[in-house]
Amino acid sequence: MTAGAAKPESRLAMVRRARRINRELAEVYPYAHPELDFRNPFELLVATVLSAQTTDLRVNQTTPALFAKYPTPEDMAAAVPEELEEIIRPTGFFRAKARSLLGLSAALRDDFGGTVPGRLEDLVTLPGVGRKTAHVVLGNAFGRPGITVDTHFGRLVRRWKWTAQEDPEKVEAEIGAIFPKSEWTMLSHRVIFHGRRICHARRPACGACPIAPLCPAYGEGETDPEKAKKLLKYEMGGQPGQRLSPPPDYPGRPAAPLGAAAAD
Asked: How crowded is residue 260: how many other Cβ atoms within 10 Å of its Cβ?
């Protein structure tokens, strides 16, 4: 825990604390990765668009059928809207998402030769694609560093007092100034992993948190170690992660396909 209200934390001290948190998260989550299943940039782009307002797990359970029917931008651009909507219905907001997928697929076909572009300024011209989605694709399909400011990332960096900003683009700029560019993509994965597994929005598992001594918000959640352990999710709680096809070094179990019985 940081010291009480005796003296405000200097920027230098905050930066040092932030970088130490990142180093410690790297030890806790050496296998951190994007939690969307994908085999190529187009699949990651589509999956990321579908992930709005739902879980990565639900997207991963939905995309196998989607990509079996529409494996390329050309195929998806030619889809019958109602048929596309029916496949992606489990992800919610399926009509708006279908419009985005049809639009971005047509744009990829017509403007980019059926290939997902590897530049931020091109990606954000696609329907339904903002900076967050673009950074996910750039960082994980093209290896180009970017900070992904989703709800988990924004919540944690404010909880840790790295920034007070609410606007995602301002958050991205302020956090980018704290860390070297080479760390941006993996920092995003680690913070999002931590937000999903331990530092939850409503009941953070403070008593089971490996970075508790560095956290100015320690005590907002459950501090009793045994009670906190019961709040852990995914591999730390012995449960499957969000991917049906996780990386080889993932320590948890794969998630179940859509409609499968829940794992015991």
From this structure: 10
pTM for the structure as a whole:
0.93
| 3-state secondary structure (DSSP) of residue 241 | coil
Tokens standing for 47? 């999956």
Distances (CA, A) of 207 to 97, 217, 228, 252: 39, 12, 5, 22
Taking phi over 0 as left and psi of -120 to 50 as alpha, with beta for the rest, 113 belongs to left
Catalytic sites, residue numbers = 132, 150
210, 28 in Cβ contact below 8 A? Answer: yes
Task: Compute the distance between CA of residue 146 and CA of residue 19 in angstroms, rounded to an integer.
Answer: 17
Provide long-range contacts, Cβ within 8 A and 24+ apart, for 175-178: 175/147, 175/149, 176/147, 178/14, 178/15, 178/18, 178/19
Counting residues of the chain whose pLDDT is more than 90, the rounded percentage is 94
Residues 35, 55: Cα–Cα separation, whole Å: 10
pLDDT one-digit tens code per residue, 21-56:
999 999 999 999 999 999 999 999 999 999 999 999
